[in-house]
Amino acid sequence: MARARVRARAASYLAAGDDLRAALCTWPPFSFIARCERLMRRVVEGGGFEPRRACRIALLSSSTTALLATALRAAAFRDQIALAVYEGAYGAYRQEILDPGSGLYSFRPDFVVLLVNHRDLALPPTGGRATAEAFARELYAAWATLRDRCSCHVLQVAFDIPTGGAWGYLEARDDGRRRAVSAANQMLFDEALAGVSVLDPSRIQLELGAAYSDEKEWLSNRQYPSTAALPLFADHVLAQVRAVLGLTSKVLVCDLDNTLWGGVIGEDGLGGIKLGPPTALGEAYVELQRYLKELQQRGILLAICSKNNPADAELPLKQHDAMLLRLDDFVAVRTNWQDKATNLQEIAAELSLGLDSFVFLDDNPIERSWVRRRLPQVVVPECGDEPLTMLKALRRGLYFEVVDVTGEDLARHGSYKLNAQRQAVARAGGSLADFLAGLDMRAAHGPVDEATLVRVTQLINKTNQFNLTARRYTQEQVRARAASPEWWCRWFRLRDKFADHGLVGVLLVSTGSECWVIDTFLLSCRVLGRQVEEFMCRVLVAAARRAGVAVVRGDYVPTAKNGLVADLYPRLGFVADAGSFLLSLTADEREPSSPIADVSGGQ
Fold this sequence. Notes:
alpha/beta, 25 helices
């Protein structure tokens, strides 16, 4: 922060911003965050802040929110999110939600954080379960009102579990106070609507213990949670915001020696590395691998980047009995003596993913520093050189938090693994047309509905490279367009002889009697190079012709990441016209061809 101040005084605002973000990545206490607030504002005003996304968050609470707003701004600055915050009047969240003329609705939030705590329930030691459940149902009604009046995502903070009650053990039994609060929380999780996610404060309570809530701060100024808990609490809020905005990290790249096992495989040999029993250190490496394996099973891609001889590096992955992760668990492997920043760039190119979706885990501080300096968009946790500190850093960072998991997420690893196999087949020779024809590709498509809403919204907010306009929408905004007769909204699925890739494409088109306008045209990077875009255009053209439309218009809005599709519309037969691209649907023009069979009946 000191260096950032010096650079800001010299008007080197970009460098000052880099320093300040690096400081905030060390998870400092709230006292530090408060001290850097003015500097953060100065950096932003000086043009030293380049946001990946912008959003507006409204804080509605039964407690004070000024310090939480400060912590959220710092976390958003660190995560390169341009954040505007609205603070509702203290304790007046019901009035803000129910009054259509309140400042909340004038603010037009993208997210509403609804923060309550166990004191709002005013429960007796026993016999309060009905009261707690009634309060939960009141929150359901608040969610519905917010959903009807503004297209926002609601982030409901569940109730913290009260501790230290006079009835002690009895409060956890039957109709006791702690049992009643837990029941109300379970109702919130069970009944969360589309567009609502629930933040579980017990995760933070377990990590911070008694420091989570400070009775003196509550009595003095109604501060909840405590100032000591605010940085971690804000990070949990921002993790869900990142998830909804499509900014969750997708790839975890790991070193091998002294990261996934103890020792150097090339020197210590298979029997000399520390992995598994009988040592505590060996078992700690197994715990780290277990966490990574569970990430992979949830759809996070794992890759290897290690300075090693390939034959040596593969030995534990293939032969060690205690190894939980095997070679097939990784979608990309770089074991060579090339510098790691270059290897990471090659992995990103191989996977067709942006480096800002990568997290790099390495025990060596020199390698971490090198990657940070060369590739500032990659997240590099300061994780130490012990397996348990690495595990703690991954948990604390909340890099891979999501609010929904789809079937496509769970199948992601298999899709990327098979992509590598296809690339190898393609490199072996033969024409591209023959190769694609041999894949036996079949696509289905249909109107966006409740069954596909979550995945469609996820793709809209996560897809960067094959995205013609990079417009982002909430679930409520997508739902409204899908239900409107003025929009044609379509999802696309793909399968081939290797795998079912699930829902991979989205078209949102504004309809008119003479001209249809493509608002959103995107495709998951897991199926690039398969000519799915031609198939999607073919379906669109057929629908427009059935509607008697003469012209389809498309726009390309350049971003830092979508140069891949700069020439897409001309390739599909569109003609440049006044900054847009037009496709005339005259009867004698052929629809775009595609090697993909339509299994939806062409409707």
